[in-house]
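Dear colleagues,

As part of the handover before I leave the project, I'm documenting each prediction I ran so the next person doesn't have to rerun anything. This entry is a single chain, and its sequence is reproduced below.
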Amino acid sequence: MSSVFSLRALRPIASTSALGPSTSRRAATGVRRCAAGASARRGISQSAAPQKALPFALNTTRSETAQGEDASGVRHDGKMLRMIMFGKPGAGKGTLTARLVKKYDIVSMSTGDLLRQHIAEKTEVGLLAESIVASGGLLPDDIMLKVVTSKLDLLQNRHWILDGFPRTVGQGKLLDDHLSARGTPLSLVVNLDVPDSVILSRISDRWVHLSSGRVYNLSYNPPKVAGHDDETGEPLTKRPDDNPEIFARRLEQFYASTSPLLAHYSALAAGTGAAATRVVTLSGSTSDEIWPQLEGTVRAHFSGVRERPEVKRRHSLSDAVLAQERREKGKVLQRA
């Protein structure tokens, strides 16, 4: 099988046109039809997270941390987090991944970013991928596997989240075989269960800052200045696929081709007894509802995942301020 990745697909195309009410009504009908026709196949989706992968050098020959240590050099016995997250288009995969990476010492990898970096650095895989794409072809699954594992193989002792791969059962099996052969199988598969109607409303109100990947939503996370990024002040744009008609088609494709991955990983987890791969479904209508479930799952099952030092410092400062406030209140009460 061939992958859907191409350089043209990787280039962002901006559109600033707004959605009209008649368009939304037509798409809602399409969404209901495709959802009703595939209710038995509900599960997981391809990922298109806005969060960019952390920078790294592809041309390196050693693991990034010592055996048995986390990024801070502290030894731990906790299970390593090797995670993929699935959900329908617009389910909040990018938002939730960004929150995990910001708070915890976890590496996030985007397949699109990895492919672009291979091509930019003219690695063997990058040159091969570039020649295939330049001729109008689609990248075979084995090439995409090399793109992904070139980084994963360097992260044996790091916690990571992979975005954008696998997207089919065939790709999933290739990834499983590779990771299992190295003794580093997936440890967590997260399935985001968000109602279709909620996602349709969400993408209609979604605006993005393309260069940074920051995502805003007019309903619950609006920019401070309408139409402009909070940090740079640059104009926000609509993703080309953030319209109801395209969403209906993507949802239909999701149910038809990508959702069987959930059944694959559920069967894999059931067959391992002790469940080297844990599969969880998290339900909610917003990322704020799902976030406590996701964080709770990570903290409960992966004790080696540690908060980033700057997060701990912020917590310590907050605790100190609160303690001082309590002391001041106590003094006031004593004087009274």
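The chain is about 45% helix and 10% strand. The beta strands are 82-87, 107-110, 160-163, 188-193, 206-209, 214-217, 278-283.

All the best with the project,
I.
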